[in-house]
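Sequence design from tokenized structure. All designs in this work follow the same two-part layout: the structure record, then the generated sequence. An example of the structure record is given first.
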């Protein structure tokens, strides 16, 4: 995955680097559909848990995102390869049993 012009953004700063300073390989996490806010919600959740992520718009989706505000082909979300398992667990969304439901 190429970083292109976004190389110096906050995502690049938060992305893990190898000893030579190059960003860790990106791993595909999930594809989100084009007509809802799923991608924004997933990326916000990952950010809240300290997992950096980047979006990629497949096909001609980047053009649609710029012109229309949505990508007709949806959004692919990538995370650092070393944090892929953690991100997958977060997406499962299984809450911890913290006892809050007792007595209801």
């Amino acid at each position: 995955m190429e970083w292109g012009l976004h190389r110096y953004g906050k995502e690049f700063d938060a992305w893990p680097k190898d000893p030579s300073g190059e960003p860790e390989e990106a791993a595909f996490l999930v594809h989100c559909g084009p007509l809802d806010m799923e991608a924004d919600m997933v990326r916000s959740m990952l950010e809240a848990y300290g997992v950096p992520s980047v979006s990629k718009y497949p096909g001609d989706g980047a053009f649609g995102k710029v012109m229309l505000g949505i990508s007709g082909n949806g959004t692919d979300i990538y995370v650092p390869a070393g944090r892929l398992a953690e991100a997958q667990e977060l997406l499962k969304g299984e809450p911890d049993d913290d006892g809050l439901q007792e007595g209801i």
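The longest helix spans residues 38-48. We note this feature because it recurs in several other targets discussed in the main text.
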